[in-house]
Design brief:
Blueprint (H helix, E strand, L loop, with lengths): L6 E5 L4 H11 L6 E5 L5 E5 L7 E5 L5 H17 L4 E6 L18 H12 L3 E4 L11
Parallel strand pairs: 1-4, 4-5, 5-6
Antiparallel strand pairs: 2-3
Helix pairs in contact: 2-3
Length: about 140
Amino acid sequence: MNLREDIKLVTGTSNYDLADKIAKYVGADLTACTVTRFSDGEVFVQIDDNIRGADLFIIQPTNPPGDNLMELLMLIEASRRASAMRITAVIPYYGYARADRKDRPRVSITAQLVANLITTAGADRVITMDLHARQIQGF
């Protein structure tokens, strides 16, 4: 029973227990979604419930960052295509946060790249904690 009809919560596979605790705390149900992996390791994501017009929170830490970051991006993109009104990425662990500045020649500022990917995928907001450096907030 969803006590909070005004919000929807979705989680990927990286930390279902955390998402379940958040859902219970705010009095909302987790929105059904399917996340599977093909034999070659590719991820498939589908939002199973109607989220049209919803204020959606996607709970997905990015640790380890490779697979879980891609899963987060796909959840965001699928939610945008499903017409969620607003998408907030809840990222308790923000992977690649240590690469936050250009301290040597020819290095990637990966913290900014990840922020750009999240924005491009369709997130309106990000909630995270314990960022490596304050400048990441500007990304």
